[in-house]
Amino acid sequence: MRVILAQNAARLARARIIKFGVVGASGVAVNLLIAGAVSDLMVREGFSIGSATPAALVAGIVVSIFTNFLFNDGWTWADQRGAEAWLVRCRKFYLTSAGAALLQWAMSLLIHHFYLPTEGFWFLSADALRLKVAACVAILIAMPVNFLVNHFWTFRRAKT
Known about the structure:
- With 160 residues, the chain is an all-alpha fold.
- It has one domain.
- It contains 4 helices and no strands.
- It has helices spanning 2-44, 49-76, 86-114, 126-154.
- Helix 1 (2-44) runs antiparallel to helix 4 and helix 2 (49-76) runs antiparallel to helix 3.
- The longest helix is centred in the N-terminal third of the chain and has 43 residues, at 2-44.
């Protein structure tokens, strides 16, 4: 019986990790779209790329956290939604994501600062490429931290 329970728990954990990854991929798309749009808008309004980058990264992170919460709450951990109220889960998700977001933001700025392509790629300028690469690498660093804290705190099963 213990073996069957352990196998089911392992299968559920793998499925949850895959779902989290799919949601995270959609969050990457949201993050990059928002960061790119905000950066472009700020540069058009006269800001330098250096001053637009931090704000663009924050905007991408904040919006993607909310869309990720909606998908994770409704799909990844849907079997545990009844454990706590929606606002409590949302607050916990934002608190959890804030730590991962700060890590992502700091890593993005660090990578953006040191990754200096001299040419663009395809339709991206060198500055735009630097922003995208920095955001993607930082997301890959922050994602495992975010999953673990959400799994064991934000969406944990209610004690019975």
